[in-house]
Amino acid sequence: MAKQNFSIFVQLLKSRGFINLKHVTRNDKSFFLADYGPPGTLLRRNVLKQWWKVMVLQQSNVFPVESSVFLPSPNLEASAS
Q1: Is residue 67 domain-resident?
Q2: Which of 18, 20, 47, 80 has the maximum number of C-beta atoms within 10 A of its C-beta?
Q3: Which residues of 1-81 form beta strands (DSSP E)?
Q4: Is residue 66 part of a domain?
Q5: Whole-model pTM?
């Protein structure tokens, strides 16, 4: 039931221009990537903005930090090709 509901939800997002799914195969692995349409981009930005406000700015004991991301070598090689 949940899988069917998720499929219906994804179809609705696609038909309304929120997302555009692409099937990608890389290094014998197959997966989907989602591009955001104009309404999807605005929704994503609003969700992130609200999350930042509630989870970071409104908390007295949370401090934002930005740092470098270190990945294992195979991940870097796969992303470079």
Answers
A1: no
A2: 18
A3: 19-26, 29-36
A4: no
A5: 0.62
**CA 54 – CA 63 distance, rounded (Å):** 13
Place of tokens 């090709």: 81
Q: Is residue 77 part of a domain?
A: no
Other C-beta atoms lying within 10 Å of the C-beta of residue 39: 13
Does pLDDT of 73 surpass 90? Answer: no
Residue 43 φ/ψ, nearest 5 degrees = -60, -45
C-beta separation of 33 from 22 below 8 A = yes
Total of domains in the chain: 1
Read off the pLDDT of residues 22-64 as tens digits, 9 standing for 90 and up. 988 888 888 889 899 999 999 999 999 999 999 999 999 999 9
Rounded to an integer, what is the distance from CA 26 to the centroid of its chain?
19
pLDDT at 10 over 70: yes
Q: Is residue 49 situated within a structural domain?
A: yes
- Count of helix runs (H) and strand runs (E) in the chain: 3, 2
